[in-house]
């Protein structure tokens, strides 16, 4: 989330160019996400790959053989063993350290459950995009205090949102959908207050379940499933802002993400500029009833 502001005119020009290119890339990725369903459906028809084969990986149950706890009744030992496994796997050590630094970290049952889901997400993955998402969360998930004139979290807020999802759900194998939702919605936690955090806690869980339901509908109707989309398409999919993602990210950078800004986003503004889950369900029903062949 760090985004240092320019100190010189040359740096300012460079940053504007950077934002311009980022905006163009986001627009392109959004278009790719929209068109991906049609492309992959045609590709699937050309190659005659059965739906069962396409979804086999995402439906594989998460293995349990890699998780070992020496004292099942000790939450502290369970959590320690999970995180030791992560720390033994290269950059996963950074994830484990950031996980322990989250404000919710303790030794109660919810932390045991969340840590178990979190550990299995990375250790049982065979999709490189899970690793890629983890690296992006580590590199960009902690806000830079220098970018704000008000107090912001000093922990990894994208990892915090992933923790919230882990508390409320079982992650699927290679669950980059959950990772994408965490990456996108960390922004609101950074620029919002406690009310926003409570809203994001609920909204991200609702969004994950909405997409999982949609995935099952796609499967039933014989369409390529969104859980098989690439990571960049899922990031675009997880954006629920009511404005064009490229335009609105630029606007947020200007309004809430600079040293001179003193305002946090209000709960009313958050509700106004994001699409709620009921509206998404209505849109889904309309699309499947009017446009999608059964």
Mean pLDDT figure: 76
List the uncertain runs.
Answer: 1-71
- Outline: globular
Q: Summarize the main sheet.
A: none
Which SSEs are present, and which pair or pack?
Layout: H1 9-47, H2 51-59, H3 75-87, H4 92-100, H5 109-123, H6 128-140, H7 157-168, H8 176-191, H9 194-221, H10 231-238, H11 245-256, H12 267-273, H13 277-290
Helix pairs in contact: 1-10, 1-11, 3-4, 3-5, 5-7, 6-8, 7-8, 7-9, 8-9, 8-10, 9-13
Question: What does this entry look like structurally?
Answer:
- 66% of the residues lie in helices and 0% in strands.
- It has 294 residues and is mostly helical.
- It has one domain (9-62, 124-290).
- α1 (9-47) crosses α10 (231-238) and α7 crosses α9 (194-221).
- The model is unreliable at 1-71 (pLDDT under 50).
Could you list some keywords that capture this structure?
0% strand, 66% helix, globular, single chain, mainly alpha, 294 residues
Q: In short, what is this structure?
A:
The protein is mainly α and 294 residues long.
